[in-house]
Sequence to fold (139 residues):
Amino acid sequence: MTRGATPPRQFAFGPFRLFPAQQLLLEGESPVRLGGRARDLLLALVEQAGQVITKEALSARLWPNIVVEEGTLRVHIAALRKALRDGQEGRRYIANIAGRGYAFVGEVVATDSPVRPRTHRRSRSRHCPWGGCSVERKC
Fold:
């Protein structure tokens, strides 16, 4: 992305759509549970899809002005891979480039589409991980 350019409103890859402004990742119409750092990591990777991003650059973006161990980044990469089911059912999104860093290798479509994600309506149910179910979805 170039300086001064308007950032895309969403990134689509495989069955997923990432909405950076809403801090939301959807698989189809379902929200994907993802921690804040893992979501920030995903955004960093998809913004530069196809390019190797060094571990140092990723760490600096996720933890500015803080020194973290390399293992911390690996933990978040592992969580992200698990959430995306990377390596399962023929899915391949994140590649480890030995000694250099990581690259997002899935095909990414960035769009400025004004379409807003549908959100899951909340209720007081304790059984639903999103806070409740709507008539459209049974958890």
Q: What stands out?
A: The two ends are 38 Å apart (CA to CA). The beta strands are 10-13, 16-19, 24-27, 30-31, 53-54, 94-97, 101-104, 109-111. The CA atoms of residues 81 and 111 lie 23 Å apart.
